[in-house]
Design goal:
Helix content of chain A: 40-55%
Number of domains of chain B: 1
Strand order of the largest sheet of chain A: 6-8-9-11-10
Order of helices and strands of chain B: EEEEEEEHEEEEEEHH
Radius of gyration of chain A: 35 Å
Helix content of chain B: 10-25%
Mean pLDDT of chain A: 77
CATH architecture of the largest domain in chain A: 2-Layer Sandwich
Distance between the termini of chain A: 68 Å
Number of helices of chain B: 3
Number of domains of chain A: 5
Oligomer: heterodimer
Structural class of chain A: alpha+beta
CATH superfamily of chain B: CheA-289, Domain 4
CATH architecture of chain B: Beta Barrel
Number of strands of chain B: 13
Largest sheet of chain A: 5 strands, mixed
Low-confidence stretches of chain A: 130-143, 242-246, 302-310, 510-519
Shape of chain B: globular
Largest interface: A-B, 25 and 24 residues
Number of strands of chain A: 21
CATH class of chain B: Mainly Beta
Number of helices of chain A: 22
């Protein structure tokens, strides 16, 4: 067996489980879920990691996880409660485990052994130090093969004419009675010979239902405390039973573990105190906590059977990439076929091919969608960062997440996580003011950070906005001049000034904090996003806040393109950016400037042959393609229009990374290479060129 | 360490580095060059090279090699000589150059390809510190093969992606 592969599977699985654990803990901590709802998932995560780590002999992980698991087990048994402190501790443990597991993958990661020991010491406090919570049944709750009775007779039992002995003898008729203990709890003072001070413990092996057994004590029920514990066999039966979608309570009653009356009481407690039914039943002592968790698991399992639930299949990313590459080849050879067929002019073959082609398009879209993942995963990682950072800074942050189900390419999600983290940290550190300052400014004490994602015209837009102080244009300018990033006499628009914060070595925070202010980070943000063929924009208003808006292409593999040519060079424009095409008549040009009059609107244009310094003759007839990206429009002057095509993006060699305006290449049907234009970059490049020529 | 002779450009000529090897020889501007056959993937005719805008002269463009987009470099310009004139015998040698733990495919334009020679390490001399009129760090050594000198090249130096990327960046600015 290939151990390396199994090992990497383990690492991947463990990291996934830790993420689940983190998400659950964060929800509990935020009060979005109760400990009862998630503790099983958290426990299971720890348990699975321990188990698999044991298989590989990662003893350090096993030892650490074991302690974590023991504490979680106590929480599960409700012996300790998962309060804020413990949540915090669990999150720290989760971090530590994450580092331990990452270290298996990457030797360069340093593990803080001291921190690990400290965590263990804190965990041990929970294991040994604290006494169990008030749960009188805790010790008797141990599962046995018998029904267990614990009856504390009320003082008036004798006065009401009841006889505990007759109940006991009746019980004996229902099954075999063992371990009968009758104890008396006499008060120190005011002993009343007519009162009953008896307490009965008994075990009964019986086939009777709980209802029958409870009926034995029917007449003393009102005056006495009666606890009947369910035998193990029933809870096992419960686990085996095939029950469709059922409520927890009904499930328990059906199995004979709870009587309808107990359920009624629990339901009342549920309404009055807003505690979970399971918990209420446990508090009443009607059922042991283990039984409830069995039933809860069962309930969860039945929920999972619903067809609406998604089923996932784990596929190796390499296989998927291989498939997409193949489909890329298929698309390319389809394009070649298409151009051959149009030369042939046989209408039957052409028609049959067009059917094939449309199927091909569907396969292409299907294959590409396989790589799509929801962005929510990235966002939940940010949730943790927001929590940690706001704690560190002592700021209260309200995090709003929108559009977590927006899908984008998996490889993009990976490359996005760093930039998003940097932006969020910066927003928390520099954007949102300290609480006192916010109150002084008349803003709510709690700062607001909003993460949102949405699809917009063939691209994904991710926005991170805060309601902080906003960017100060003058301050940024001064700082940039001071740092030598900006020449003092340069005029910049507001938007361009904001962009200065992405320059390497730029930082406006007066003090360098642990989180940000070192001037590394924001330049990484821009670089990563440009690598993804995306753009980042900043909108800001003083005292209102700042919004970072990241626009990314939907996919990195295949796009619908529009083929044009300039001289002998074939260029491909992303089709979703193309708005219209028209003939470029010299009359359209306004007085030698690069403006077009588009139905009364001023439209700047770029002559591609000029900007790319392409040689060759200028044709008699030129065309202009009007492109829209985000909120901007521009015209691109080209020689000839060739129409739509599917372009499989072939990234250019890394030595061309400084090339502006061209995002990649594609192989055309003719076998020639077409260059894919990166329009926003192209416009930026044209703007910079013009700036250089206008500011000598 | 006795066999190490220092040569210009802080590069060392290390005999141990030269194992028994085959070299592909080619002509560039009437001079004979050789490159280790292990780096050569194939040799194709000069055809259908798509120019990339704004590139410095040494970048001839890109080429469609069975679906792969391969950059084509003019070696003559890398050696500070005039551009290669495209003629009937002009070829592109497709090479695999190690870069960041990966093999990157590149094409090199040469005037014509000759033969594959088996050159014994003993017959390879360190490059003269001057006189070759090529940057010393490009040269692995010089072999004397049947009355003529063959300059053996270090492919990963001549076609250093890092260096070429920097050159392109300079042009873009």
């Amino acid at each position: 067996m290939d151990l390396t592969q199994a090992r990497s599977l383990f690492i991947e699985e463990a990291l996934g489980l830790l993420e689940v654990m983190e998400a659950c803990l964060l929800e509990i901590e935020a009060g979005d879920a109760t400990a009862g709802q998630h503790i099983d998932a958290i426990f299971r995560a720890a348990h699975t990691i321990k188990g698999s780590a044991g298989l590989f002999g990662f003893d350090a992980i096993v030892a650490f996880t074991h302690i974590v698991e023991s504490v979680l087990d106590k929480v599960r048994d409700q012996k300790i409660s998962l309060d804020h402190d413990l949540c915090d501790l669990c999150l720290l443990c989760q971090d530590h485990l994450m580092t331990m597991i990452r270290q298996l993958q990457d030797d360069s990661i340093q593990l803080d052994l001291h921190a690990g020991e400290q965590l263990l010491a804190r965990l041990h406090l929970y294991l040994d130090g604290k006494p169990a919570l008030a749960m009188p049944e805790a010790e008797t709750a141990a599962m046995s093969e018998h029904w267990q009775f614990d009856v504390r007779y009320g003082a008036d039992v004798f006065r009401d004419g009841m006889d505990p002995m007759s109940q006991l003898s009746y019980l004996a008729t229902l099954g075999t009675l063992t371990d009968v203990h009758l104890s008396a709890e006499f008060p120190a003072e005011h002993f009343d010979p007519e009162s009953c001070y008896l307490r009965l413990h008994a075990n009964l092996a019986s086939e009777a239902s709980k209802q029958t057994l409870e009926d034995v004590f029917e007449f003393v029920r009102d005056s006495s405390e009666i606890h009947i514990t369910v035998p193990k066999s029933i809870s096992e039966q419960l686990a085996q039973q095939d029950i469709s979608d059922e409520k927890l309570g009904t499930l328990l009653v059906q199995a004979g573990a709870v009587t309808p009356r107990e359920l009624q009481q629990a339901l009342q407690a549920h309404k009055q105190q807003e505690i979970a039914i399971g918990q209420a039943l446990v508090q009443q002592g009607a059922v042991p906590p283990e039984l409830i968790s069995t039933a809860l698991d069962k309930q969860k399992a039945t929920e999972h059977k619903r067809p609406a639930d998604f089923q996932f299949l784990k596929v190796e990313a390499r296989k998927l990439d291989g498939l997409i590459n193949l489909i890329g080849e298929l698309v390319t050879s389809g394009a070649e076929m298409d151009s051959l067929l149009s030369e042939l002019g046989n209408s039957k073959i052409t028609e049959s091919f067009s059917v094939l082609n449309s199927l091909l398009e569907q396969i292409r879209d299907g294959a590409l969608s396989l790589r799509m993942v929801q962005i929510g995963e990235s966002f939940s990682r940010l949730r943790r960062i927001v929590r940690d950072v706001s704690k560190e800074l002592g700021k209260e942050i309200d995090l709003i997440v929108e559009g977590a189900d927006t899908e984008l390419d998996k490889s993009m999600v990976e490359k996005l996580s760093d930039p998003l983290m940097h932006i969020v940290r910066n927003a928390l550190d520099h954007g949102i003011e300290p609480t006192e300052l916010r109150l002084y400014k008349g803003k709510p004490a709690q700062g607001q950070l909003k993460l949102s994602a949405r699809h917009e015209a063939g691209s994904v837009v991710i926005e991170i906005s805060d309601d902080g102080a906003g960017l100060n244009v003058q301050k940024i300018r001064d700082k940039a001049i001071e740092k030598g990033i900006l020449a003092p006499d340069r005029d910049l628009s507001e938007a361009d000034t904001y962009k200065l914060i992405f320059e390497p070595g730029f930082s406006t925070a007066a003090a360098v904090t642990n989180l940000s202010g070192r001037g590394v980070g924001m330049d990484v943000v821009r670089r990563n996003i440009e690598e993804l063929r995306g753009q980042i924009q900043i909108r800001s208003a003083i005292e209102k806040g700042t919004t970072f808006s990241i626009r990314l292409p939907l996919t990195l593999a295949i796009i619908d393109g529009f083929l044009v040519s300039v001289a002998d060079t074939k260029l491909v424009l992303p089709l979703n950016m193309v708005q219209e095409c028209m003939e470029f008549k010299p009359g359209l040009q306004t007085q030698g400037r690069n403006y077009l009059d588009l139905r009364g609107e001023v439209l700047p244009f770029i002559r591609l042959s000029d900007i790319f310094r392409l040689p060759g003759r200028r044709l008699q007839r030129e065309n202009v393609v009007i492109v829209q990206y985000g909120s901007d429009r521009a015209g691109l002057v080209v020689d000839a229009l060739h129409g739509e095509l599917q372009a499989v993006i072939k990234p250019l060699n890394s030595m061309f990374q400084s090339l502006r305006g061209i995002g990649g290449s594609t192989i055309l049907g003719s076998g020639d290479i077409g260059l894919i234009l990166d329009i926003p970059q192209l416009v930026q490049f044209a703007t910079n060129l013009e700036m250089q020529t206008c500011h000598p | 360490m006795s066999s190490i002779t220092p040569s210009a450009g802080a590069e060392f000529f290390n005999k141990a580095e030269l194992t028994h090897q085959h070299y592909l020889t080619f002509i560039l501007r009437d001079e004979y060059f050789g490159i280790s056959i292990s780096a050569v993937k194939e040799i194709i005719e000069y055809d259908n090279v798509t120019a990339i805008p704004l590139m410095p002269d040494f970048v001839k463009g890109v080429l469609n090699l069975r679906g792969e987009v391969v950059p084509v470099i003019d070696l003559s310009i890398r050696f500070n000589k005039p551009a290669t004139e495209i003629q009937r015998r002009t070829c592109i040698i497709i090479l695999e150059i190690p870069f960041e733990e990966q093999l990157v495919t590149l094409g090199a334009v040469v005037d014509s390809v000759c033969e594959v020679l088996e050159i014994q390490p003993e017959s390879i001399e360190s490059a003269p510190t001057f006189g070759a009129r090529i940057r010393a760090q490009f040269i692995l050594g010089v072999a004397n093969v049947g009355e003529r000198f063959v300059i053996l090249l270090r492919g990963e130096r001549v076609l250093s992606l890092d260096e070429m990327a920097t050159l392109i960046e300079k042009v873009m600015e």
